[in-house]
Write a structure and sequence with these properties.
The complex is a heterodimer of chains A (306) and B (370).
Chain A (H helix, E strand, L loop, with lengths): L13 H35 L4 H6 L13 H4 L13 H37 L3 E2 L2 E2 H10 L5 H15 L5 H25 L4 H8 L4 H30 L2 H6 L7 H6 L9 H21 L1 H10 L4
Antiparallel strand pairs in A: 1-2
Chain B lengths: L1 E3 L8 E3 L4 H30 L10 H22 L1 H31 L1 E2 L9 E2 L3 H7 L2 H32 L5 H13 L2 H12 L6 H8 L11 H30 L2 H9 L4 H28 L4 H6 L11 H12 L2 H30 L4
Antiparallel strand pairs in B: 1-2, 3-4
Helix pairs in contact in B: 1-2, 2-3, 3-14, 4-14, 5-9, 5-11, 6-9, 7-9, 9-11, 11-14, 13-14
The chains are: A mainly alpha (306), B mainly alpha (370).
């Protein structure tokens, strides 16, 4: 791929020039094509939220050119400029779901990062023996949770939560979400801590700090970017989670994905309000993706390269 | 008492003087809270069995007692074992958390799996032995869903090829690399539910969806993306691939960037160009990363459900069903927890066997060629 770049010297013949340009054109053609494939559905979702029924049916695509944007979709959520000041039960409903999603995603990601970082640090520094399990076994035990499909836990949890009155509560969801992202956090953080030389803590302990003191004052600041990466990845997974939320919540602790999935009215689907709702569900993560892309890539790359 | 931690990666000498009264306090803490947990648990069991009424509404008191015991256990580590205990404290909370949230429900699930339990009926749980297994054996839809999973997993090879191609492009000398990287990453960030509605139901709508229009313009007279079983399965595969290709792409990109420049340059000096350079230098170097990426992708693929539940709900005729979406509907329709749990348990066993074999095979191939 990169070998074309070294032949930029002037005595290259015209034939080679042409080949080089063709090559470049091909690369950029493919890149742009894939960028369109990735971005068009997002564009479609956002523009559809400003359409009216005939625009949707005619398949108009470009606002102001082939249709006039209207606030129809956002009005149905009570979020358009003319309804934003007024009382709206739909908006309250939407805000409740939005808040549920935010709280469960943030709390469970935070919990997972705390528990996971501590465990990963311990496993990378000390040798343990829990019964017959040594460090490698404990690591494997944590990571093997990744294989566990949600269905296996879903029905037993349904029954257990029913007995413990945790069904349809945020705490119930938070516990499960923490569990599902914990292996990923441990995986990323193990890699992070392994990259930090132990001499740092040793120096700190000579200076009189304890194990935990050294961890908080010396290691934590160094490992912070990795923790941010793990946190954001967890946030993405928990914000988008649908399966557990659909099974374990009904009215109080519903998250946004559940609300999106249950939007079938009696007269078919009103695409504009569906699109507005979907936009609201994906926009926070799109913003995070654009702003914090560096961390996400860092997090996902952590376990890949050894 | 001075302990030298020999096998640890971190070499520290610790000196702890732990009095016997302190050890006794720690032990009392653990056993006291354990006794409380046992007492509450027993009382609740007694009430459920109908021996005596303690006025419990839910099993929450047992839950609280359990949390108390777990906290006491962590705290007592430090009291009893001093410095060693402080180290245990790093791993113990996570271990307790995972054990209590997976091992216990799994054991409980085993009990449920061998019973008939309709949550909405007042009869409660009834042990029914092997009946669920027999029913499963004769359930064509379950095995059909299992067969679909094989196709879905095989589709990963195509996803991998595309992801590798994109990673190579992003690793080439291009302008606006950051823009392309962000754009390629975005599908992964989107909620599968929103994707299944806005892409699966809106963009693929046979009459007005932009993709249906495109298909008609390309000469497909009557585009129907979910009409035939093969087409529906293919469409689900494409939508799932769309969201997860960025994931593999980024792992592969990280692998490409970790290849030392000298290696590719040396191969170029040796005269390897284009395809040959790729097959003989880049691809073998990327093998370990590729295998990791594919294994993780398989794990995620085996959990595929959201898109299927929302777009096709398994149809037409179960052609797009995944095991997860099938069990989801099975529960929704009949609300029989027992049968669903049995299906899930069998699925888990099959997955564990499959992944173990796969990892063994992969470990063999991942070894660098000498």
């Amino acid at each position: 791929m990169t070998e074309t770049a070294i032949f930029k010297d002037g005595d290259a013949d015209r034939h080679f020039r042409a080949k080089w340009f063709a090559n470049r054109a091909l690369i950029y053609g493919v890149l742009i094509l894939w960028a369109v494939i990735c971005l068009f559905p997002i564009y479609w979702t956002i523009t559809t939220s400003f359409k009216m029924a005939p625009n949707v049916m005619k398949g108009n695509m470009i606002p102001w050119v082939d249709y006039d944007p209207a606030w129809l979709g956002w009005r149905s959520l009570g979020l358009s400029p003319d309804t934003i000041g007024a009382e709206s039960t739909v908006r309250d409903e939407f805000m409740k779901r939005f808040l549920n999603s935010t709280v469960t995603a943030l709390v469970s990601s935070t919990l997972a990062v705390i528990l996971g970082s501590l465990a990963a640090y311990g496993l990378s520094r000390f040798s343990y023996k829990f019964g017959w399990m040594k460090n490698d076994d404990i690591s494997f035990f944590f990571l093997s949770q990744l294989i566990l499909p949600p269905v296996v836990l879903a029905l037993p949890f349904l029954v257990l939560y029913k007995e413990m009155a945790l069904l349809d509560t945020r705490i119930g969801l938070i516990l499960l979400y923490t569990l599902t992202v914990l292996p990923i956090v441990i995986w990323i953080m193990r890699d992070q801590f392994a990259g930090i030389p132990t001499e740092l803590e040793e120096a700190a302990m000579v200076d009189g700090l304890g194990v935990w003191g050294a961890f908080f004052t010396i290691i934590l600041p160094i490992a912070l970017p990795g923790m941010v990466a793990a946190f954001i990845l967890s946030l993405v997974l928990t914000w988008n989670e649908y399966f557990f939320a659909a099974l374990l919540t009904s009215t109080h602790a519903n998250t946004l994905p559940v609300m999106v999935a249950s939007q079938t009215g009696s007269q078919g689907i009103s695409w504009w309000s569906m699109a507005a709702l979907s936009t609201a569900a994906i926009l926070p993560l799109i913003v995070i993706g654009v702003v914090l892309e560096r961390f996400i890539i860092k997090g996902m790359a952590a376990g890949a390269v050894k | 008492m001075s302990v030298m931690s020999g096998a640890d990666h971190l070499h520290i000498v610790t000196s702890d003087d732990i009095s016997s009264s302190r050890i006794r306090l720690g032990k009392a803490l653990i056993w006291g809270s354990a006794a409380l947990l046992a007492a509450v648990g027993l009382a609740q069991t007694a009430q459920v069995m109908g021996w005596r009424d303690f006025g419990f509404q839910t099993w929450r008191p047992t839950l609280y007692a359990y949390c108390l015991w777990a906290t006491a256990l962590c705290w007592a580590q430090v009291i009893i074992r001093g410095e060693q205990g402080k180290r245990t404290l790093f791993v113990l909370p996570a271990a307790l958390f995972v054990v209590s949230l997976t091992v216990f429900p799994l054991l409980f699930g085993l009990v449920i799996a061998f019973s008939s339990w309709n949550l909405s009926s007042p009869d409660g749980r009834q042990f029914n032995g092997m009946a669920n297994l027999v029913q499963m054996w004769n359930d064509p839809f379950y095995w059909n869903a299992m067969g679909n999973m094989i196709w879905y997993v095989l589709a990963i090879l195509v996803e991998y090829t595309i992801a590798f191609g994109l990673a190579l492009l992003l690793n080439a000398q291009i302008r606006a690399r950051k823009f392309f990287r962000v754009a390629f990453l975005l599908p992964l960030m989107l909620s599968p539910v929103a994707v299944s509605w806005m892409v699966g139901k809106s963009m693929l709508e046979a009459r007005f969806g932009p993709l249906a229009r495109l298909a008609r313009w390309l000469g497909w007279d009557n585009p129907s993306f979910f009409g035939s079983p093969e087409m529906a399965k293919f469409t689900i595969m494409v939508m799932d691939a769309w969201t997860f290709i960025p994931f593999m792409m980024i792992m592969l990109l990280a692998g490409l960037q970790a290849i030392p420049k000298e290696l590719t340059e040396a191969s170029r000096v040796d005269g390897a160009k284009g395809w040959r350079s790729f097959w003989e230098v880049t691809f073998p170097l990327m093998l370990p990363v590729s295998i990791t990426a594919i294994l993780i992708r398989i794990i995620f693929k085996l959990k595929l459900a959201d898109i299927v539940i929302n777009v096709t709900s398994g149809g037409p005729g179960g052609a797009t069903d995944t095991v997860t979406s099938f069990i989801f509907r099975e529960y929704r329709d009949r609300s029989n927890v027992g049968y669903g749990t049995m299906l899930a348990m069998v699925y888990l066993v099959l997955i564990v066997i499959f992944m173990t074999v796969l990892m063994k095979v992969a470990a063999r191939y991942a070894r660098p060629r000498t």
